[in-house]
Write a structure and sequence with these properties.
This protein is mainly α. It has 13 helices and three strands. A three-stranded antiparallel β-sheet has the order 1-2-3, with helices on both faces.
Length: 290
């Protein structure tokens, strides 16, 4: 999946080997609602837009995966957008429970050990949250199907690098680039984990558990907005030695969430990029989003 400022393209390799494409023009929300241009606000909006785009991409991918079976059986089966949206909602809720509520509860149990310091409480909560996140990523990276997904993820990154270098989008050109990209969503998630430690430290330790848990959900848009601004800043200053040191953990984490793709996977990534750029043609800003 590739996004340009005014376009979205999703390319999927069907079971029969053909590449199916879905593309559409996207009107930026900032043109209709100027407030969306404001720092932090734009990051929070981008988070919810990404969830919507993710539902579209997964729905399209799932339907294309079963398309060939439909042709063989003569029956029309299609996964509805509502079914996919429901699945994503459950997954999002599970993520909040696993990465925000559970660490808070475990930290609460450790209060007799760590003492009453608000700073220590939130540091322990943050360390547990990051540890759970890393363990989750490591665990799913061992799954065969997920490893194939991570190969496509690596193909996206390589294609982006080739495009940004001004090279022709061919498999030969794309192959030589790194699969680790500083603007990756994986790096963004790690930044979210770190930023949440700082923001959650402002929540009084004496609050009841339900208020602490609820505040973590309410503050997610703010955390996403701040993390987005940091990611944009680091992308603009990635030649700085300091910035390179700061983004190094995110790049290291991508060694788990990306794999070296094969040629067929790079072909899909290239096709998605070409389609997104074609729809976006005529606009000055043609940067792509991973």
């Amino acid at each position: 999946m590739m996004r340009a400022p005014r376009s979205l393209a999703i390319a999927v390799r069907r079971p029969d080997g053909e590449i199916a494409v879905r593309k559409e023009e996207v009107i930026p929300l900032s043109e209709r609602f100027p407030i969306v241009k404001l720092p932090v606000v734009r990051g929070a909006v981008a988070l919810f837009q990404s969830l919507i785009v993710g539902i579209k991409a997964l729905n399209f991918s799932a339907n294309e995966a079963i398309a060939e079976e439909d042709e063989k059986s003569g029956e029309k089966k299609e996964l509805s957008s509502w079914a996919m949206a429901g699945t994503m909602t459950i997954a999002f809720g599970f993520g909040i429970l696993l990465f925000f509520i559970m660490p808070l509860y475990l930290t609460k149990l450790l209060v007799p050990v760590i003492g009453d310091s608000n700073i220590i409480f939130n540091l322990v909560d943050g360390v547990i949250r990051v540890a759970v996140f890393l363990l989750y990523i490591w665990t799913i990276s061992r799954m065969e199907d997920i490893q194939r997904v991570f190969q496509y993820h690596g193909a996206e990154h390589k294609s982006i690098f080739a495009f940004e270098a001004g090279e022709d989008l061919t498999v030969e050109n794309v192959r030589k680039y790194s699969r680790l990209h500083p603007r990756c969503g994986t790096s963004f998630l790690l930044i979210v984990m770190v930023v949440s430690i700082v923001i959650f430290s402002m929540i009084p330790k004496l609050w009841p558990f339900y208020l602490k848990a609820g505040s973590r959900v309410v503050l997610l848009p703010l955390i996403a907005g701040v993390s987005y601004e940091f990611l944009k800043w680091s992308a603009k200053n990635d030649n700085s030695p300091l910035v390179k040191m700061i983004i190094a953990p995110g790049l290291a984490l991508q060694r788990l969430t990306t794999r070296e793709p094969d040629d067929s996977q790079m072909e899909v990534a290239i096709r998605s990029m070409e389609e997104a750029l074609a729809v976006n043609a005529g606009y000055k800003d043609d940067r792509l989003v991973i």
